[in-house]
Design a protein that fits this description.
Helices cover 36% and strands 26% of the residues. The protein has 387 residues and is an alpha/beta fold.
């Protein structure tokens, strides 16, 4: 039985597999695609990755392979072209990020994990995960072959947040929406993009970015709404979607025209979708999402905020006063005013008289609304009987 089975051999999956195997765990990894593979991805890696690469023993290899240092950022939209120095991370010995194509990065990291002794199933997809009392049984399948059952104490989902599939951690197919986002990526050679510049591009129906990667390639990665793609296809039904999207970019991002002048696209446009950027699941059905486990192993989880006992006690005192005042016949207005004042004090306000006045006015209005407009009775006391 394995200690852990990692589902997905991209950067996250190979990294966690290498870290666990390097710590003495018996690790398996299942990857659905054959490598090398192109994939829709921004490809830029920020300098905060260097400590992790150092831990993996991959830092020097990455620097050898990756593109130039990115020292400037920009925004291109319409005729607008804004460029600024990239904020320098003074805490890191290497303050600038670089980009590396996924067809290179994925192979390097997977080979690193294999060097740590992991067991690899590729190309195998995980089609089912069953939880038993002390383990998981994951069914892996390659094409039309019979499935292979793998038992492990832990299953780590590193298949990406966009993939639709049968696992509890995967997306389920949803009804189409005009605002669905689709990902596009292409590589170009001989562009005019300054090698140290990474501009964001904003255009009708989407956004994206440009970056110089390894071996002089420039990567364009973008997300665009379904409604925009449908309009483009309607206007030119005979053309492929990738070139249509490129045309849309050139028509709406003026600086991109000069950058791509004289360049050559290498290969076809890649598409993916529906994509769900910014979606992070902590865990589901006992399967741990990979990002949190990596942070835990690196000791990078944020420190737990210390609770202020005085604030907690003030709020508890306010609740006790609320119950006591209503129980003794003091009424809704006095009871809720006491809770309001103690709670605002617990959150750091030091204006008790002002809070008293605000609370009395607010609670009186609330009482009148319930009593006169909704004809619902709230606990009455001396103040309520004056109204």
């Amino acid at each position: 039985m394995l200690d852990a089975l990692v589902i997905g051999g991209g950067p996250a999956g190979s990294t966690i597999a290498a870290l666990l195997a390097g710590s003495g765990w018996k690790v398996g990894l299942a990857e659905a695609a054959a490598f090398p593979r192109r994939k829709v991805c921004g490809e830029y890696l920020s300098p905060t990755n260097y400590p992790l690469f150092r831990l993996l023993g991959f830092e020097e290899r990455f620097l050898e392979l990756a593109g130039p240092e990115i020292r400037r950022v920009g925004i291109f939209s319409g005729d607008i072209e804004l460029i600024s120095p990239f904020p320098k991370n003074e805490k890191l010995p290497r303050p600038w990020g670089r980009a590396l194509r996924r067809e290179v990065l994925d192979v390097e990291l997977l080979n690193l994990a294999l060097g740590k002794g992991i067991q690899l199933w590729q190309p195998y997809s995980a089609v089912r995960v069953e939880r038993h009392s002390d383990s998981f049984v994951t069914s892996l399948k390659a094409g039309n072959s019979e499935s292979v059952d793998v038992r492990s104490r832990l299953v780590i989902a590193a298949h990406g947040s966009w993939k639709i599939g049968p696992l509890p951690t995967q997306q389920k197919r949803q009804p189409p929406s005009p605002h669905d986002l689709f990902g596009f990526k292409a590589h170009f050679k001989n562009t005019q993009l300054p090698p140290d510049l990474m501009p964001m591009i904003v255009f009708p129906g989407g956004y994206g970015g440009l970056v110089t990667t390894d071996k002089g390639f420039m990567s364009i990665s973008a997300c665009v709404e379904r409604s925009t793609l449908e309009r483009l296809r309607k206007d030119s039904p005979s053309k492929e979607l990738g070139p249509l999207f490129e045309q849309h970019l050139l028509a709406n991002v003026t600086p991109l025209r000069s950058i791509l002048e004289g360049s050559k696209r290498v290969g076809k446009w890649l598409t993916a979708g529906v994509v769900a950027p910014g979606s992070h699941t902590r865990s589901r059905d006992g399967i741990l999402a990979v990002g949190n486990l990596i942070d835990a192993l690196r000791g990078n989880l944020p420190p737990r905020e210390s609770a202020d006992p005085r604030a907690v006690l003030l709020i508890l005192a306010g609740l006790a006063l609320l119950i006591a005042i209503i129980g003794l016949g003091g009424g809704f207005i006095l009871a809720t005013t006491a809770l309001f004042v103690t709670t605002s004090t617990a959150f750091g306000r030091r204006a008790i008289l002002a809070d008293l006045a605000i609370a009395v006015v607010m609670t009186t209005l609330i009482y009148l609304a319930f009593d006169r407009l909704l004809t619902l009775s709230l606990p009455a006391g001396p103040l309520e009987r004056l109204l």
